[in-house]
Design goal:
Elements lengths: L1 H9 L1 H21 L6 H18 L1 E3 L8 E3 L6 H24 L7 H23 L17 E4 L2 E4 H23 L1 H11 L1 H6 L4 H27 L10 H10 L5 H19 L1
Antiparallel strand pairs: 1-2, 3-4
Helix pairs in contact: 1-11, 2-6, 2-9, 2-10, 2-11, 3-4, 3-5, 3-9, 4-9, 6-7, 6-11, 7-9, 10-11
């Protein structure tokens, strides 16, 4: 029994990443009615760009046809790398909203999903061309969370797993409060229900949608960066984390942050037990 408990607790790290990616899917769906199948692959690009910048101060650009990279700093630090990650994720989130999904807002749901599938294929190919197809699963670079372990119920559990699980729950709580207690949450719900109704109320639905896309993209990038010391970072297969993340968001009805976070953590724990 203790073995199963240990494996379930160890799976909380991967489950937290599934939860965070699922929360990003809920954010974009509530704001734009889109199930973004490219969410995890965009997170993989952001994480790879973060680690490349942390290595040598080079920013890898996400637009094919432009120069592939720009050297920004000779000696980057953890703090500057995180600032770059957040800024880059915010820019990518706004670009996705303005260039891809806002033009599809009036399209049928299937057309919006096909658009997200096209974005998934683009980001997968972008990662392959910019970073190569080599697996980075054995690489352990610049861990952000503590790497020690604690004993729980007779089993050693990594502290980083507990931090990730706690972070997933905290993000779900914050998003729930924002959605139910703030003007921004009201604006998001009004814009999702009807653009025309929101405009008549004096609200700006485009701004709310763009802000939600920024939040979702930042969450996706952070999730993949934080899980790298646990599961590694594969340029190809990391984008497939969208499958369990989508399962978690669907269990949450694509609307509940709490249920999505709980489902993500449960999926990670069950997967760890089954694989064990």
């Amino acid at each position: 029994m203790s073995r199963y408990v240990a494996e379930a607790l160890a799976g909380l790290g991967g489950g937290a990443v599934v939860a965070l990616l699922g929360l990003g899917l809920v954010l974009t769906h509530r704001a734009s009615g889109v199930i973004n199948l490219a969410h995890a692959s965009v997170g993989a690009y952001l994480a790879l760009a973060y680690y490349r910048f942390r290595d040598d101060g080079t920013l890898v650009l996400p637009i094919l046809g432009l120069p592939s990279k720009v050297h920004l700093l000779p000696t980057p630090t953890q703090a500057t790398a995180f600032v770059l990650l957040v800024v880059l994720a915010a820019v990518v989130g706004v670009a996705l909203h303005l260039l891809v999904f806002r033009p599809l807002r009036a399209a049928p749901p299937l057309a919006r999903m096909v658009g997200s599938l096209g974005l998934f294929l683009y980001t997968q190919e972008l990662v392959r061309l910019r970073f190569g197809g080599r697996s980075a699963a054995t690489t352990r670079r610049f861990p952000v969370l503590p790497q020690s372990s604690v004993r729980i119920l007779g089993s050693q559990v990594g502290v980083d797993r507990l931090w990730l699980a706690g972070g997933g729950v905290a993000v779900a709580a914050i998003l729930t409060l924002v959605a139910t207690r703030t003007r921004f949450g009201l604006l998001t719900r009004a814009a999702a229900a009807s653009d025309e109704g929101a405009l008549l109320m004096g609200l700006r639905p485009d701004r709310a949608a763009a802000a939600n896309w920024v939040l979702a993209t930042v969450l996706g990038g952070l999730a993949v960066v934080l899980v790298e010391p646990i599961a590694g970072l594969d340029p190809t297969s990391t984008g497939l984390l969208i499958v369990p993340a989508l399962a978690a968001s669907l269990l949450g009805g694509l609307s509940s942050y709490w249920l999505t976070a709980a489902a993500g953590l449960a999926i990670g724990a069950v997967q760890a037990v089954v694989l064990g």
